Amino acid sequence: MMPPVVILTGGLATRLYPATLKIPKSLIEVAGKPFIFHQLALLKKQGVGTVVLCVGKFGEMIQDYVGDGHEWSLKVEYSFDGETLLGTGGAIKKAIPLLPEIFFVLYGDSYLDVDLKPILERFECEGKPALMTVYHNNNKWDRSNILFKNGRIVKYDKKNAIPEMEHLDFGINILRKSVFNDWPDGTPFDMSEVFIKLIEKGEVSAFEVFKRFYEIGSIKGIKETEEYLNTKHQNYGNT
């Protein structure tokens, strides 16, 4: 059975202002539906049964739209940041009571049309507490931030990239609860901080993905995602 998926939807999406001044990024219309509709439909197709949405500002609007997930035949639960935005890491830490020992993590602005099963199999086979998917981006779609050699993540740094970095984090992660044991409750922190420490200790498996990602973090990204979804729906029928 597929583990639950945490979707991080609590960001402010300042790059998309003014569009996101009154609605969350997840509810931006893409290919005729709020973006989160497409995310949840894809997860259902991939065999996921439970989703936990980490929400921040405008979280109630997402909850009003998605509800309990019955439209997608999913079970959907919510973890609210509260008055202080907790960052990607802090938001997951707060959601821990809703989660089993192992879970996926995705970002609320990404459409990642790849099979989750082989990724889970790699995680289970290697037995490390975390897995990160990587993509040979070579600075094409976004700035590369990973040094990846011989199937292993050697270095990961979102802020200080080096020329040798040709891969980036694709956006699908698998984690054990235990990776958050040393991180404080209620304190904002980023998932990149967690991964940097885990990578330094050799505790992160890697799974290389060979299909590009789509995202709605920019106007250009929204246009490309919409084109992809429209083409996909024309080929396979709308969901």
How far is the N terminus from the C terminus?
23 Å
Helix content: 25-40%
Name the shape in a single word.
globular
Percent of residues in beta strands? 25-35%
Uncertain residue segments? none
Q: Quick one: CATH superfamily of the domain at 5-132 and 171-182 and 214-236? A: Spore Coat Polysaccharide Biosynthesis Protein SpsA, Chain A
The CATH class designation of the domain at 5-132 and 171-182 and 214-236 is Alpha Beta
Mean pLDDT: 91
Largest sheet: 7 strands, mixed
CATH topology of the domain at 5-132 and 171-182 and 214-236: Spore Coat Polysaccharide Biosynthesis Protein SpsA, Chain A
Number of helices: 6
Taken in chain order, the helices and strands follow as: EEEHEHEHEEHEEEEHEEH
Q: Which architecture of the domain at 5-132 and 171-182 and 214-236 does the CATH hierarchy give at level 2? A: Alpha-Beta Complex
Rg computed from alpha carbons, rounded to a whole number of angstroms: 17 Å
Nutshell version of this structure?
By secondary structure, the chain is of the alpha/beta class. The protein is 28% helix and 26% strand.
Could you describe the 3D structure shown?
The chain is an alpha/beta fold and 239 residues long. The protein has a domain at 5-132 and 171-182 and 214-236: Spore Coat Polysaccharide Biosynthesis Protein SpsA, Chain A (Alpha-Beta Complex), CATH 3.90.550. The protein has 6 helices and 13 strands. The strands form 4 sheets. It has a 7-stranded mixed β-sheet with strand order 5-4-1-6-11-8-12, sandwiched between helices. A two-stranded antiparallel ribbon has the order 2-3. Strands 7-13 form a two-stranded antiparallel ribbon. Strand 9 and strand 10 form a beta hairpin. The two termini are 23 Å apart.
